[in-house]
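## tool: complex_structure
## caller: assistant
## args:
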Amino acid sequence: MHNLVYVLLRRIHVPLIVLVCVYAISILGFALIPGMDDKGNPWDMGFFHAFYFVSFMGTTIGFGEIPYPFTDAQRLWATVSIYATVFAWLYGIGAALSLLQDPAFQSTLRVNAFRRAVNLITEPFYLVCGYGDTGSTLVRALSEAGYRSVVIEIDQSRIIALELEDLGMPVPGLCADAAEPKILVMGGLNRPNCVGVIALTNVDAVNLNVAITAKLLRPRVATIARAESHSVEANMLSFGTDQVLNPFDTFAGRLALALHSPGMFLLYEWMTAVPHEPLREPLFPPHGRWVLCGYGRFGKAVYEKLIAEGVQVTVIEAMPEITNAPPGTISGSGAEASTLIEAGIKSAVGIVAGTDNDANNLSIIMTAHELKPSLFMVARQNQHQNSITFKAAKLDLTMKRGTVIANKIFALTSTPLLADFLQAAWRNSNEWANQLVSRIGGISGDEVPQTWTIEITPAASPALYAGIARGRRACIGDLCRDPRNRDECLPCIALMIKREDTVILLPENEELLRRGDHILLCGHFGAAQQMEWIARNHNVFDYLYSGEERASGSVWRWLTREKNQPPVSTPKP
Amino acid sequence: MNLEKVIFAFFIVLALTLNFGFFVGSIDNPVHHSVYELFAAIVVSLIATILKFGDRTHLGAVLLATSLVADLQLITAAVVWAVTEHVTHVGLTPHIMAIIVSLSGGALLANITSVILLVAETIAVRR
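## result:
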């Protein structure tokens, strides 16, 4: 704030001095010029009357000649003074107004507003650097899930987009270079309620800077960074960045997963979806030869993944020599029918339009569709704003890079246990995933399932913890009982128990809970809130566990103690 | 030579000299103290204050403070003068004159402090 005052004061030096000088000269003139009183005697105005007269003359001009009518000499001086003071005021006010519109002053104002907004956040928040496609999707998802975030973005137009976005909760944004540690500190990095730093800018060097700054200043804060090159990725991991995402690898890996094991793909998509997204239909991609258009960084990653999966791929690339395309690559953009026919589109089962130009991708898809309507069509969507046209193209699969990365980060930040689960799930077959997906689909309704974690600790779930500590043999099945009627089940599935270093994937209903367990669940929206009851309310826990209502008052509990005492005190055989 | 420094030092020293000029003389004798000199001292002191605005250094802050003290003292002296002349019509009795001159004496001390700080800063700069 004081910054602002200094800028203001420094800029109005000259107008103020001009004003003081003009007033001084005018006052001095009136004090010196001899006057005449109403009886014609010589009369000196003096400084007191001179100051009074000049004060109102400068601002109003119209109280008349006070206290006695002026002599001609005084009128002459008054005329000069009127012009001088009016101009001095105009100059002063004009300078003050132009200062308010000054870009430097405005940016100081904005920085101050941003700093105030960050300081006002009392809840835990994430510091998101970069508000492109990925950043905006992530911030929206975080806001919808009730997490606060702060945005730093170098492009002013994206900050304006952030201000116009209706996110449901204030998200302070600053147009600045996130590579500067000072800016990160301004964004609240040093505040105790900053729980994570997410670096998503387009420039690897900036992301690296953000990650290292965060790790040095706040070693315990979660750091997630995006890295396009493998060397930067390794560099980031070397100093302990919690998660490094390579957009091309992640994205290509997801695409390969979709083609190779659609069940697993669906599981990944659902688990990492943004809340309230509609449930995506399962895909059944055909087996056979695929045509891949575009061999850039994305194309290369897709090619490697597909070849690793044992899928036959024909590549079409406009500049095969420069991009070091594999042998057998067809030269051309892929948007013309001749190139596609040359690549054997008639005998292929699917096409992946993976260039970095959305118009080209759509054109490739349209041409290929005309040549062979039964093709399985996959396109890469680069720009968020092209969603309408991609939807109209009726693609089998649209890969939105920003969304894939943003969803993954969202899942990692909101449910850290999910990373362990997905890693464990990866080792299972596609059939296993298919079964799980159909189970989840049965309970989650039209929207993607919600995932949440129950921790059996005294702080997170006091009732459950105390119950287990007393020797109650609560199991997963008890946890999933409906608090309104214990014979019914909540629409949820226990995905995983993390017990110290071991992981139990899809635990049975009879699996006993232990103190310190972390349980990952997924289910219909609202089931998580119901589950809070058994975790936190002692009476609900007793009811769900034994079917008996526990006496809630101390007196009644004392009266019924005889009945309840034996099972509690009896040691287990 | 830095023009800004010249102007800055000029006004600070001028504020002191004018203030001193008003102050010297018998403390209760109105003949020894010119109202024009007081007026000039106030105007120069105000300009010196404005020139000190916006300096973020510690020294700048202290300079601004001394200047504000000088302004306050001088303006109080002027108000006392105006009130006795025009409001209460007591006139410049030796008692009133002593009040006005002693107020300006206080301002003189503040202005001396300003100049001392200015000299100290100037000596510290070796170029």
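## assistant note: The two ends of chain A are 69 Å apart (CA to CA). The first helix of chain A runs from residue 2 to 11. Handing back to user.
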